[in-house]
Amino acid sequence: MRYMFFLLALFSSISLAQSELNIRSLEYIDHGDSGKELSTSLSVEVTSSRSGAPIESYPVYFTIGGGDAELNPAEGYYTVEESTAEGLIVQTDENGIAAVDANLGKMGEISIVATITDSDGVPSTASFSVVSLDVKAIVFQIIGGLAVFLLGMQMMSANLQLVAGNRMKSILRALTANRFMAIIAGALVTALVQSSSATTVITVGFVNSALMTLQQAVGVVLGANIGTTITGQLIAFKITKYAFPMIAIGFALSAFSKNRKRQMWGKVILGLGLLFLGMTTMSGIMKPLRASAPVREFFTNFSTNPVLAIFAGTLVTVFVQSSSATVGLTMTLAGSGLIGLQGAIFLVLGDNIGTTITAQLAAIGSNRAAKQAAMAHTLINVIGAIYFALLALDQDGFFMKLVRRTSSDAMRQVANAHTMFNVVNVLLFIPFVPALTKLCRIIIPSGEDIPEPDLLLDSNLLSSPVLAFDSLDREITKMARVSGKGVCWAAEHFLTGKHQAKRLLSMEDSVDDMQRDLTVYASKLFKENLSSEQSLRLPVVLHTINDIERVSDHAVNMVEARNRVEGNVLDYEGPLTVAAGQAFEILKEMTEQVVNALETHDLKAAQKVLVLEGRMNQIEEEARNNYGKSLATYGIANMSGLAILDFIDYCERAGDHLKNIAQSIIGGGIWHGQEPGE
């Protein structure tokens, strides 16, 4: 054995001794445009290994080691005519330099090798690595890949929401008794619908409708942050190669199945396949970029600046309105070697901040409690991003080492870092939920009720009908509140002269505007892919909007009737004025109960409206019977008596429309094929 090692060592020393020449590549530009000549020649220098002197007129064999390119003689250098099709033989000049030009082919990495052989047949080589870039193709494929990714995400999320239906809202309502159950509910619903934005928007809506407390909402938001990490983990499982089979299976189910639920599940699978196809497209186009030194340097400088990377992650997430898309893009960059793990973590932290913008947008126009819930979401992610960024600053710190130990794969490391951030952040915030709630109330203090804001109808939610219907429910309740307040104030105006007529007419104009906007928004839903239940709900929604507006119309009638009476009508004697006072009280109670029923879906409140409407009919009938008696006995002037009778009639007609709304709530908001009564 010892003898064998001796022979090997001797052979190596002889080989080294026989190497008479040195060859090295000179500086060059390592990238160029596809289909064009590289802007610099590829040059090598040949020198004597003993003296270091340049060797003149020595043949250098240039060949394409990999990729698509064609070699041409460089100007001023002698090329041997007997060069092969795969390469060129170039002789060195007086400085020992030989050079070739390269025409770059299709996009990708290109390897070019220069070889010399000394008198004893010992070869020496120098190599060049060049990237052929097609900027237009890169831009189109990245944008196209991201578009396909987002389309898949949207399709998957929307159809999961259709499959879940109102189940996700029921889960949120049922499982928010304490902060731990709220976290579970948030994580479960977000994992179910693959959209933390959907969960937070629903949560803000619940808080706005007083169906959930601020403290419960904070728990749901914490859970949503955990649930949103599922997408990244799915991507990291490297099942992108199954993109086309998933697209095929999903399309077959959605196109050929007669079962609506199977069709929706088919679109979920199709969406997941498109998501993976988008990832594959972006990943494939980014791989050649990693061989370019300037491109690597740009991404390295960009991703190692924590502030810049976090800001970029936030900005991209706000722009594409999908935290999963940003995480997927970051994982692609990391998997392609364009950014390191540290830079990827900074981008993911920015993504977690950016995803809170959706909740902030949903809270615009909502009450203070809803704004506080949105603020809690932002605070949780911003505070978490700050301390995790500090942990990630040290490349060799505990956190970075822990992430590296979880996997050897860069994409998996990013997915794991994303999950670790959200899980640890939730665990740390659980004890501080009450304190965070108080902080949100300090930042956005509770105050007196403010005037009803404009409607908040986000057209982006139309593609997700569950969320669009939630938005409609909130805004219809808002419209009912304005209409109810307007008709009650108009009744007071008729009876006592209280409130300005101009203001009451302005309120009615506002209700008309709300009717127009809500009707247009609801009508757009007819174009969306609705479930059978949602298709039956939509006509009822439109009828409810019209009924609310008709209630407001009767407020105008009351204002106009005021011109036919004087003073405080309730001071007049007789059963007619008593009936007017009773009609007003019942109308006021009916509007309150309808708003309550719309806001909380309280069936008892809706049933109470029906009872009150029956009493209103009796009052109106008795008033007509007592009209002649009032004229004869109490001497009420004919015009005043008719005005009071008309007022009671307006109250009764407004009550009919309020009854229609209550009946739709009792019927579950489903169209049963009958027109509501007048």
Characterization of the model:
65% of the residues lie in helices and 9% in strands. It is an alpha+beta fold and 678 residues long. It has three domains: 20-133, Immunoglobulin-like; 137-443, no CATH class; 462-666, Phosphate transport system protein phou homolog 2, domain 2 (Methane Monooxygenase Hydroxylase, Chain G, domain 1, Up-down Bundle). The strands form two sheets. A five-stranded mixed beta sheet has the order 2-9-8-4-6. A hairpin with a 5-residue loop joins strand 8 and strand 9 (123-133). The protein is elongated, with a radius of gyration of 37 Å. Mean pLDDT is 78; it is low at 1-18, 448-453 and 671-678.
Strand content: 5-15%
Largest sheet: 5 strands, mixed
Roughly how much helix do the residues carry, as a percent range?
55-70%
The CA-CA distance between the termini, in Å, is: 107 Å
Number of strands: 9
